[in-house]
Amino acid sequence: DADVTQTPRNRITKTGKRIMLECSQTKGHDRMYWYRQDPGLGLRLIYYSFDVKDINKGEISDGYSVSRQAQAKFSLSLESAIPNQTALYFCATSDSRGQGAITGELFFGEGSRLTVL
Amino acid sequence: AQSVTQPDIHITVSEGASLELRCNYSYGATPYLFWYVQSPGQGLQLLLKYFSGDTLVQGIKGFEAEFKRSQSSFNLRKPSVHWSDAAEYFCAVGARTGGFKTIFGAGTRLFVKA
Predict the structure, then answer these.
(1) Got the DSSP string for B9-20?
(2) Is A10 on the interface with B (CB under 8 A)?
(3) E runs forming strands in B1-114
(4) Does residue A8 have a cis bond before it (omega within 30 degrees)?
(5) Min CA distance, B105 vs chain A (Å)?
């Protein structure tokens, strides 16, 4: 089983609908992230959380919200989806302790492809 | 603010040929540098990282990268490409400001021809 699991893997929805993408991890990491991938733009950070009570905006947070329900769960919501939110979304984790504290290595889920019509 | 530039959107190499993917970064302090690979339908996987010490770093799958501070570069190399190396490659820089944030380049897609 994957250490970082995203659901759903694929979703097609209509403009104006509310969408939630969920992420759960079994790595025991304290930090979690949501990234968006668009062709030619690489990955851009939407939100990140360094622990359960800590939520921070990334570079492209407008139109998105997040919830850190537990250390292992971090969900991303689109309150009213629009077509330019069509993208591949990645959840990632990192560990603030040990080697992870030094290098900041990210561990990624397999992605959730969202299409907004 | 930190940034990462990958000048090549895509590269095609023949199987068995050598590979070099370019990466330039902008960051005011000593950077933490990464190369990640994304195979089709998969998430990103770390190939290698640099944060101190020897400027030539070895990674998984036979990849290596060299940090050149004078050129603000961290190019990825492999002496002999295999068909399974076809993927998208992302260079990234990590910054220790307000926690640890990672900024990604736009990616380079590698095609391998037989």
Answers:
(1) SEEEEETTS-EE
(2) no
(3) 3-5, 10-14, 19-21, 24-26, 32-38, 44-50, 56-58, 64-68, 73-78, 87-95, 101-104, 108-113
(4) yes
(5) 6
pLDDT above 90 (res A103): no
Say whether residue B113 is in contact with chain A using an 8 A CB cutoff. no
pLDDT of amino acid A20: 97
Res. B28 pLDDT band, cuts 50 70 90: confident
Contact A106 B32 (CB under 8 A): no
Residue A72: what pLDDT?
Answer: 96
Angle of CA points A27, A32, A37, to nearest 5°: 115
Residue B75 contacts residue B67 (beta carbons within 8 Å): no
Residues 36-95 of A with CB under 8 A from B: 40-45, 48, 50, 56, 90, 92, 94
Of the pLDDT bands very low, low, confident and very high (cuts 50, 70, 90), residue B98 is low
Instruction: Find chain A residues with C-beta within 8 A of B101's C-beta.
Output: 45, 48
Compute CA distances B81 → A93, B44, B74, whole Å. Answer: 30, 19, 19
Above 70 in pLDDT, residue B107? Answer: yes
- Single-letter code of the amino acid located at B75: N
